[in-house]
Specification:
Blueprint lengths: L2 E6 L14 H8 L14 H4 L2 E6 L7 H17 L3 E6 L5 H8 L5 E6 L19 H7 L3 E11 L7 H9 L2 E4 H7 L1 H12 L4 E6 L21 H10 L5 E7 L10 H24 L8
Parallel strand pairs: 1-2, 1-3, 3-8, 4-5, 4-7, 5-6, 7-8
Helix pairs in contact: 1-10, 3-4, 4-5, 9-10
């Protein structure tokens, strides 16, 4: 297997509206609408790679700490067989155990589309939750902070601690105000500049999108990035060494029209295209059965 599609039904790290544990099921259902060829890049990932849905990672219903351990063990198995993971959460605690499994040997770059920076040291008295995964990953040497770019940051804040930390360690933070001032093409150039040619992980908190496109999420923030812009940014960075990615914070129970799940499924397809191209260019593809 080249690419493993994974669900992570964990929302114990969420601090406002829960329900993201149902995200994998909702996005799988919406994926019935996904076809095989990217209309812009013309990439057909299933023609390039062996791709399969390997089911859901195990979680503990009462313990976020134990859940993180179980998820990490699951992804270590995926990493051992040489497959690249593309995941749907679950809340934004989910990237931490994934990175612990796949980034042990070298720190990765990160492209993060999100309305929040997730760089708190503690949040609600805990260190492992959906607002701390970037800080933990930097502290543990899983991410190179100078190769992190965060796009779409906005919304009211508790203070400046999280933003100050990002500035201190060298994270490139693009607020929604700056995104609008720069324009989409300039932001694409900035993504390429920051992550460079090194191995990179891509994480999308669905609340990075404007709530008009993704209302089904626990912490919606008005004034976000359009679905069209996110699609085109991902298509424009095809060719980067993307080694995995995830979509998090999808809450189907808060998604009355189903559009959040549909958009998340489409973004998973975009991630699959990115990883398929990266693996093909590097020669990391298994010979497909005929």
């Amino acid at each position: 297997m080249d690419i493993a599609l994974v669900g992570v039904p964990l929302d114990l790290g969420a601090t406002y509206r829960s329900g993201a544990r149902q995200g994998p099921a909702g996005v799988r259902e919406a994926s019935r609408l996904i076809r095989q060829v990217n209309p812009t890049t013309k990439v057909a990932p299933y023609q390039l790679c062996n791709i399969g849905d390997v089911g859901d990672a195990p979680t503990h219903p009462l313990s976020v700490e134990r859940s993180v351990e179980l998820v990490q063990e699951f992804y270590e198995r995926i990493h051992r067989i040489g497959a690249s993971p593309i995941s749907v959460g679950g809340d934004h605690t989910v990237p931490l155990p994934i990175l612990r499994a796949i980034a042990k040997d070298r720190p990765l770059g990160l492209v993060q589309i999100d309305s929040h920076s997730d760089t708190f040291d503690e949040f609600m008295g805990t260190k492992c939750n959906h607002a701390t995964f970037v800080r933990r990953s930097v502290e543990e040497g899983l991410l190179d902070p100078r190769r992190i770019v965060q796009i779409g940051l906005r919304g009211t804040r508790y203070g400046d601690d999280d933003i100050e930390y990002g500035s201190q360690v060298g994270i490139r933070m693009i607020t929604m105000d700056e995104y609008e001032a720069l324009g989409r093409d300039a932001v694409i150039d900035e993504i390429r500049r920051v992550v460079g040619s090194g191995s990179t992980y891509l994480t999308i908190d669905i609340d990075g999108l404007d709530p008009r496109d993704a209302p089904g999420t626990g912490v919606p923030e008005p004034g976000g990035i359009s679905m069209r812009d996110v699609q085109m940014m991902l298509r424009a960075i095809s060719g980067l060494d993307v080694v995995g990615g995830d979509i998090c914070e999808v809450v189907p129970s808060l998604d009355p029209t189903g559009m959040t799940c549909i958009n998340a499924a489409n973004l998973m397809f975009e991630l699959t295209c990115l990883v398929a191209v990266a693996r093909t260019r590097s020669g990391r593809t298994a010979q497909r059965a005929t």
